[in-house]
Amino acid sequence: MSILTTQHLSIGYSKKGKTDVIQSGLDLELRAGELVCLIGPNGSGKSTLLRTLTGLQKSLAGTSMIDGKEITKLKQHQKALMIALVLTERVDVENTTVYNLVSLGRHPHSNWWGNITQEEDAIIREAIEMVHMDHKMHQNINELSDGERQRAMIAKALAQDTPIIMLDEPTAHLDLPNRVEIMLLLHKLAHKTQKAILLSTHELDLALQAADRIWLISSEHGVECGVPEDLVFNGSFNRVFQSNSFFFNASNGNFSMNYPMTNKVWVSGDKTRMYWTLRALARAGYVVVQDAEVQILVTEQGWSMNNKDIFTVEELLHELGQQFE
Amino acid sequence: MHNRSLILFLALSLFTLGLFLADLAWGSIHISLNEILSVFIGKGSNGINSEILLNFRLPKAITAILAGASLSVAGLMMQTLFRNSLADPYILGVSSGASLGVALVMMAATFLPVAFVSSGWALIVAATIGASVVLVLVVGVSFKVHNAVSLLIVGLMFGTIAGSLVSVLQNFSNPDAIKLFVMWTFGSLSAVTWNYMQVLLPVVLIGLGIAFFLQKRLDGLLLGENYARGLGISIVRTRLLIVVATGLLAGGITAFTGPIAFVGVAIPHIARGLFRTSSHKILLPATILCGASLLLVCDIITQIPTYTLPINTVSALFGAPIIIWILLKKR
């Protein structure tokens, strides 16, 4: 079921009559229970699109509808009942516990005095449990690590109890284990709570693994939407991230560097060692050509070249260097 | 609310009440508690003491409570609005704006009807407008200047500009008006007579009422503008209401007592430290009680020496070290 749709949406900036269109003619769709990752090079309009969809910024043309209602016609309070936000700006509040922070998410639902009823309390606690922060519930947010802080902000968004959650680069500033944790958490939350979760990110490999759908945004090709694997197969990633110095390696979902390769070698043998051998050779500038003059045989313990046994990659590269002198 | 907060509120209330009574009893003429009670019950004892109590010390003590509460709440709201722990009406030039308003009325406004001026309405209206105008200017600058200390310097500059305009005014005024104004700048709680109280009290109550009305939104503002929007808070309307409330509180008090320094910046920090919370639901009443206590203490101290000290001097002695402490803590 789609919760948010856009028709011919144009995004960008308008200042003193001058308009700077970043993307136009966008027809997008956000569905319940899906994690969508917005990916694209810097300057392609990721943040602008996110800000426009959340209503923090006006669109230049076209419409975006939430639940059948146009976003621009919604009041601030009504928007807060539909979309919860997790932003990049750092929240720095003295004397605030995780519980207090998450309880702010109940803001659009509570009366003006903002009392926390038993019902509200249950929702807040559930949100904190969902992000696995129950053990730090009464800890000051200034004492949290970056990863924990981000999870607390996600709990706040959950407590807001909206059908849509949008996150602007939630994995920025985090180390690898925390990046993976947060992505996995968001993936689980989308499926478990049937919310539509949209996030922007630079983590291509993580997004490819965790996202149910990807919005691939670029200045040249607009926004391409699809299941991650489909975008790999139809070459969209390669088109968007085109460069002379690297290419999108469809076989492992990563970027590989384009090394200048001049010397020709031929490699054959054991499969598991082969992958790493090829990487090392590429980096050192050797191109693998069938039946080249220099032949390397990958064995179980190492390599064999010119009937000489070699046991480390360093030695191998050294030997090769002498061959091509 | 936790038990801890409840006990603290109870203790603070009793403390404030005790200080209030001490402030009534203290002075060049000692009035015993028994006497105070009998005057309040209506059994007017000694004629002179009852006169001193009812027409001098009582309005002065009430003014101390109102001034402490207003300046502290104004400071709290400004600290939340600017997300800057050093913001306060005095530092950001809001009090200077009020001073300019007062100077205009005292030295330049010969054209105003006498009744309007003598009732105190002219003072309070001019001071409130002056305070609000400076606050609007500072809010405008805060969009461009994000550095906390730079913003303080900008506020300082606005204060200086207002001060210079006052000096210009002084050059063109008659000596009587200048003397009146200079006396005013020393700051005094005893300037508020019952007549002025009829003007000051409603203004302060409206300001505090707006502050309590905004308490939930102020909590949201702590997260920053964009998060607050995401929670459904209308930023423009909330900012406007904060400016109006701060203008009424800081402007209203400054109009009658003169500028009182550093109460606004220090008290919210003391309240946060005591109650260990950032929730305005608790901080608002807490700052009111702490602010009232501090100014009552200041007022009692000013009575000790043979020459009464200006209240501004005493409050600065308390407040300025707290600012230094906050800056050191931030490092």
Structure in words:
The complex is a heterodimer of chains A (325) and B (331). With 325 residues, chain A is of the alpha/beta class. Chain A is built from eleven helices and 18 strands. Chain A has two domains: 2-254, Rossmann fold; 263-323. In chain A, a hairpin with a 3-residue loop joins strand 10 (213-218) and strand 11. Chain B has a single domain (3-330), classed as ABC transporter involved in vitamin B12 uptake, BtuC. In chain B, 78% of the residues lie in helices and 0% in strands. The chains are: A alpha/beta (325), B mainly alpha (331). The A-B interface holds A 54, 56, 76-81, 83-85, 87, 89, 91, 93-96, 100, 104-105, 107-108, 110, 112-114, 160 and B 85, 213, 215-216, 219-220, 222-224, 226-227, 229-234, 272, 276-279, 281.
What is the gist of this entry?
Chain A is of the alpha/beta class.
Features:
heterodimer, A: about 325 residues, alpha/beta, Rossmann fold, six-stranded mixed sheet, five-stranded antiparallel sheet, 11 helices, about 35% helix, about 30% strand, elongated, B: about 325 residues, mainly alpha, ABC transporter involved in vitamin B12 uptake, BtuC, about 80% helix, globular
Q: What is the name of the CATH topology of chain B?
A: ABC transporter involved in vitamin B12 uptake, BtuC
Specify the CATH homologous superfamily of chain B.
ABC transporter involved in vitamin B12 uptake, BtuC
**For the record, what is the CATH homologous superfamily label of the largest domain in chain A?**
P-loop containing nucleotide triphosphate hydrolases
The helical percent of chain A reads 25-40%
Q: Which CATH-level-2 architecture of chain B?
A: Orthogonal Bundle
Largest interface: chains, residues each: A-B, 28 and 23 residues
Order of strands across the widest beta sheet of chain A? Answer: 7-8-9-4-10-11
- Return the CATH class of the largest domain in chain A: Alpha Beta
What is the element string of chain B, with H for helices and E for strands? HHHHHHHHHHHHHHH
Global morphology of chain B: globular
Q: What is the radius of gyration of chain B?
A: 20 Å
Spatial separation of the terminal alpha carbons of chain A: 65 Å
- Find the count of extended strands of chain B (DSSP E, 2+ residues): 0
Mean pLDDT of chain A: 88
Largest sheet of chain B: none
Poorly predicted spans of chain B: none
Specify the number of helices of chain B: 15
